[in-house]
Amino acid sequence: MGRAFIMSIFRKIIFIAMLAGGLLPSLACHATDKLIILVRHAEKSEPTPADTRANEAQIQALRRDPPLSAAGYARAQALPGALARYPLSRLIATQYLRTRETLAPIAAERQLGVEIIAANAPIAEHIAQLAQAAKAAEGNVLIAGHSNTLPLLVQALGGPRIAPIAETDYGQLFILTLGEDQKVKLISGHYGAQANDAN
């Protein structure tokens, strides 16, 4: 058996081992490609009967900026595992608690801070700020956004038009690959439990 044949087999074994271990993010990704990963925040909580006994100002504050629900916390805990194979250098959320709490588990695991880009009106300016920050970042970026901003952000980053996201639809995950040829590829996925898994 020739030395060249043995070395060829050895290289194939190493490649398969790296792929199985998650050391290679994707066969379609090159080392110079940049990933921008977008997720919708996890489930938010709704005022409970106990909350309704609070004063009106407290109730309105909860409605304006609710934290994650128990299901939302569980989904946020699933995000690090869903993105385990992707290195990240920057995390971005809006000022709302639900986006910051969605990124909290992966921020703690990766030891990264969460940058805030406020979702203020007009929405076009917010989308432009997010797109500029994502493109300017060194390395891969993860952004937690909202049902009304993610479709616009996908397009602003050069991706295709995607379907609107329903208010009750959580767990969307979009991975945009920005290649050296300036072409943008989009992969749609999901993180956390599917809706029918909870039943």
Q: What does this 3D model show about the protein?
A:
This protein has 199 residues and is an alpha/beta fold. The protein has seven helices and six strands. Helix 4 (70-82) packs parallel to helix 5 (97-110). The protein is globular, with a radius of gyration of 20 Å.
Layout of strands and helices, then pairs:
Elements: H1 3-20, E1 34-40, H2 49-52, H3 56-64, H4 70-82, E2 90-93, H5 97-110, E3 114-116, H6 123-136, E4 141-145, H7 150-156, E5 172-178, E6 184-190
Parallel strand pairs: 1-4, 2-3, 2-4
Antiparallel strand pairs: 1-5, 5-6
Helix pairs in contact: 4-5
Short description:
The protein has helices at 3-20, 49-52, 56-64, 70-82, 97-110, 123-136, 150-156, and strands at 34-40, 90-93, 114-116, 141-145, 172-178, 184-190. By secondary structure, the protein is α/β, with parallel strands linked by helices.
Strand order, biggest sheet?
Answer: 3-2-4-1-5-6
SS element count, helices: 7
Tally of DSSP β-strands: 6
List SSEs in N-to-C order.
HEHHHEHEHEHEE
Average of the residue pLDDT scores: 83
Shape: globular
- Our estimate of the beta-strand percent is 15-25%
- Percent helix, as a range, is 25-40%
Determine the N-to-C terminus distance.
57 Å
> What does the main sheet amount to?
6 strands, mixed
- The assigned structural class equals alpha/beta
Stretches where pLDDT is under 50 for at least 5 consecutive residues are: 4-28
- From the alpha-carbon coordinates, what is the Rg to the nearest angstrom? 20 Å
